Amino acid sequence: MKANIESIFNEFNHQSKYVGHSELSSGHINDTFLVKTDGTHNYIVQRINHRVFKDVPGLVNNKILTSKHLISKYPNATEQELNKTVLSFVKAKDTAFYYHKENDDFWNVMIFIDHSITHEIVKNPEIAYEGGKLLGDFLNLTSDFDSSLLIDVIPNFHDMSSRYKQYTLSVQNALKERLNKAAKYIQIVADLKEEMHILQNLKKAGEIPVRVTHNDTKISNSLFTKNNKGICMIDTDTVMPGIIHYDFGDAIRTICNSGAEDEKDLSKVEFNLEYYKAYEKGFLEKTNDSLSKTELKYLPLAAKTMIFIMAIRFLTDYLNNDVYYKTNYPEHNLVRSKNQFKLIESFSKKISI
Ligand SMILES: Nc1ncnc2c1ncn2[C@@H]1O[C@H](COP(=O)(O)OP(=O)(O)O)[C@@H](O)[C@H]1O
Ligand SMILES: [Mg+2]
After folding, report:
1. Quick one: which of 110, 151, 156 has its CA closest to 9?
2. Under 8 Å between Cβ of 192 and 341
3. What's the pTM value of the predicted model, to 2 decimals?
4. Does domain 5-111 have CATH number 3.30.70.890?
5. What are the tens digits of pLDDT across the range 214-248?
6. Which value, in Å, is the radius of gyration of the alpha carbons in the chain?
7. Ligand nearest to the CA of 153
8. Domain definitions of the chain by residue range
9. Closest CA to 247 of 85, 131, 352
10. Ligand 1 in reach of 266 Cβ (< 6 A)
């Protein structure tokens, strides 16, 4: 539905006059617009996808609490400096941090961080290193933030037991033809099952603490300067309680695949050890003081586990006849799954756990 961005922007509390807007295309979940004004700031106007997110007011509250906490870490910063380093949200005229007309979309507005760029893929180790620092900073600065104040935006999002249960059901109900094509991978899942539950079990046993986590740590959710210096992480829609391994592991999964997620030619899918090392270095520089020994010990396993979770999610959808992920051809999900299993194989050759 085509929205009137100017009138939505004017539902928010700001002193600026709308001059024009453009749609930013790099996001995959929300619709994001850059609004240019005659004032000090330009703004991001975002339609929040309420089909993906069931409790949008709760989600927005998570984002606001997170920003507030981050802001509290810079007591001496001027407002101008803060607006360049932390997502700063703008209240709507009715004082909520979102605008919502009945039976319509939810919108929120934040200050546009000027002179920033995003990367769709990592092109050199420097970007990986800076990306690692940004996640490290995010987790370090939120390490004293009570995660029970946040709602579970997507319950069981990275939960291995529930993903594994869904997978088992899909195997039970799958068509014979699909089962046959997946047979090799079903065996690999069985072989890895125990190891892939280690993190989950440590979490359950309280040996790895539940904290505030970002949960969507691909590189396109970080802002950089044009000289490849990290500015901050963005897209805090999925901030919720979790373990740091979800964040580290998913970042590595997306950054260190030398091929696209649905590359059919598996010889092109290799684990990029150089990017791993660079990301890990940046991450550790910022987190070393706030991570426990156990958290540190399991970082490599986190990478393997997050790749595995995606591998079984794609495999599950293939066995369920492609009901969740959009597919462009009949074996698209199987290809995606094989791709992740190849990444695990390559990872295991380069990193011993
Ligand atoms: N505060 C901001 N300052 C500058 N650019 C931003 C800001 N927030 C979002 N963007 C831009 O908008 C894009 C989409 O935003 P994002 O929150 O990641 O949406 P999605 O959930 O759809 O991925 C980002 O990739 C980035 O280019
Ligand atoms: Mg995003």
Report:
1. 110
2. no
3. 0.95
4. no
5. 999 999 999 999 999 999 999 999 999 999 999 99
6. 21
7. 1
8. 5-111, 125-350
9. 131
10. no
Nearby residues for ligand 2 (ion, Cβ within 5 Å): 27, 221, 235
Amino acid residing at 178: R
In the predicted model, what is the mean pLDDT of the chain? 95
Count Cα atoms within 13 angstroms, Cβ side, for 159. 13
Look at residue 298 in the predicted model and tell me its pLDDT.
Answer: 98
CA neighbor of 32 nearest in space, from 51, 16, 53, 9 = 9
At residue 1 the predicted structure's pLDDT band, cuts being 50, 70 and 90, is low
Instruction: Map residue 257 onto helix, strand or coil.
Output: strand
User: Measured from the CB, is residue 30 less than 6 Å from ligand 1?
Assistant: yes
Using a pLDDT cut of 70, give the percent of the chain over it.
99
Q: What is the mean pLDDT of residues 101-123?
A: 93
Instruction: Name the band, by pLDDT with cuts 50, 70 and 90, for residue 271.
Output: very high
Domain 125-350: give its CATH superfamily: Aminoglycoside phosphotransferase (APH), C-terminal lobe (3.90.1200.10)
Measured in whole angstroms, the distance separating CA 51 from the mean position of its chain's CA atoms is 18
Q: Encode pLDDT of 21-72 as tens digits.
A: 999 976 678 899 999 999 999 999 999 988 889 999 999 999 999 999 999 9
Q: Given ligand 1 and candidates 21, 25, 26, which is best to mutate, with the most ligand atoms within 8 Å of its CB?
A: 26
From the CA of 235, give the closest atom in ligand 1.
17
How far apart are the CA of 177 and the centre of ligand 2, in A? 36
Tokens for 100?
């919502």
Distance of CA 4 to the CA centre of its chain: 29
Ligand 1 atom nearest to 221, measured from its CA: 18
Which ligand does the CA of 31 lie closest to? 1
Q: Please give the Cα distance from 189 to 344 (Å, whole number).
A: 11
Q: Is the distance from the beta carbon of residue 164 to the nearest atom of ligand 1 less than 6 Å?
A: no
